[in-house]
Design goal:
Blueprint: E1 2-15, E2 18-31, E3 35-39, H1 46-53, E4 61-66, E5 69-70, H2 76-86, E6 87-90, H3 102-112, H4 117-130, H5 146-158, E7 164-168, H6 176-193, E8 196-201, H7 204-209, E9 212-217, E10 220-225
Parallel strand pairs: 3-8, 3-9, 6-7, 7-8
Antiparallel strand pairs: 1-2, 1-4, 4-5, 9-10
Length: 229
């Protein structure tokens, strides 16, 4: 069963007097429970495609269906609700709130979902334990290493048990050992909790871990391996 369906997806930007086609007619199905990487050179359209799937940007043409919802038919409020309740995001720059502790950063998404304080605290601490940050609940981002911050970001993305996690270059700022640990963690979440993951990446290690690899070039799908039927 597909969790994502992209049909005829196009994204065009105006640069001066020139139209730049970041995506140029992409058709893509993502099966629920997939562990998929989008790869390709800079400017190939990886991050653009990820942003369109996550409802962070609007397509110039075509449509995205995510978990049964046609994104182009949703209002801004409906898109915000969809992102809050069904999508987890892991950004390259972590995007943690500097003044909040690790626990508070993870709880933040649950607070937006209006969960009771006790449940928020218990779930945040449990997921931080799962990502190997037991005992570091009270540290703020500046007191954590890059790898630890990225683990907090992953914990925040999965604490609400979303249908899908979108991760933009999740290992870009990490050494190979820390990056491998993070991938192992996400693969475990994928296999145990059946969370769908889509990565954009330049990292060969991420491509090797991916169960499915989609290659983008010049805004089009240029190749693929490991497709789940």
């Amino acid at each position: 069963m597909n969790i994502v369906e992209c049909r005829g997806l196009k994204k065009t930007y105006r640069q001066g007097r020139v139209d730049v086609h970041a995506l140029d007619g992409v058709d893509l199905d993502v099966v629920r429970g997939d562990f998929m990487a989008l790869a390709g050179p800079s400017g190939s359209g990886k991050t653009t495609l990820l942003n369109l799937i996550g409802g962070l940007d609007h397509a110039s043409a075509g449509e995205v269906v995510l978990d049964g919802e046609k994104l182009n038919l949703l209002s801004q409020a409906q898109l915000a609700e969809l992102r809050l309740n069904r999508i987890g995001f892991v950004f390259q720059a972590y995007n943690l709130i500097p003044v909040l502790t690790a626990q508070e950063n993870v709880e933040f998404i649950l607070q937006l979902q209006n969960l009771p304080a006790r449940e928020r605290r218990e779930r945040a601490m449990a997921i931080l334990d799962d990502v190997g940050l037991e005992g570091l609940y009270g540290r703020r981002p500046a007191e954590l290493s890059g790898g630890q911050q990225q683990r907090v970001a992953v914990a925040r993305a999965i604490v609400s048990e979303p249908a899908i996690v979108l991760a933009d270059e999740p290992t870009a700022n990490l050494d190979s050992h820390t990056g491998q640990g993070l991938l192992e963690l996400m693969l475990e979440m994928n296999e145990k909790k059946e969370v769908t993951f889509i990565f954009s990446t330049h990292d060969k290690m991420v491509m090797d871990y991916a169960k499915r690899l989609v290659i983008l070039r010049d805004g089009r799908i240029a190749g693929e391996r490991g497709k789940t039927e």
